[in-house]
Amino acid sequence: MIAAPEKFPTLTPEEYFTWEEQQLEKHELIDGQVYAMSGGSVNHGRLAIRLTAMFDNHLENSSCITGNSDIKINIVETNNYTYPDASVTCDDRDKTTTQYITYPCLVVEVLSPSTEAYDRGSKFRMYRHNPALQDYLLVSSTRLEIDLYHKKETGEWLIINYQAGDTIELKSINLNFPIEQIYRNLDLNPETESTQLL
Asked: How far apart (Å, rounded) are the C-alpha atoms in residues 49 and 58?
């Protein structure tokens, strides 16, 4: 999704929740400023749906919660709230909140040309302060390529680049899958980002 700044006074989380319930669009709250989330491409939507469905099916017999782009994440120890494209939390503390989760072990952002720098930079810097986060998955919507930021036991982040023929390994939820599984039948032409019919 693409974040565009809105011209509003600084909001508290309570004001943000109340105000956003009355809006037709989703908005992130960063340092008291509201950012509207605009729609993504068809590829963006299809990739997000496929990943969310795969995670939910994989975890259906667990106590984990799979989130789509409608579930906010509260950045740990801040009043910032973001909307990732997909997330998974297995933390019991997230079962006590109804408007957001705080402790995901997995966060997914499907990249758009206009948001890639933000997703790789500022957004990742916010997410990585979360002690529960193990995997941050960045999925290209214009080429068959995925970058995984995986937190090692030492606390260091390892970056793994996956391309055609590779198998993605998400240790956070004990899931492996071939990269082609989520890119099937997509037209990855960056000029149009259109899709082929299934």
From this structure: 14
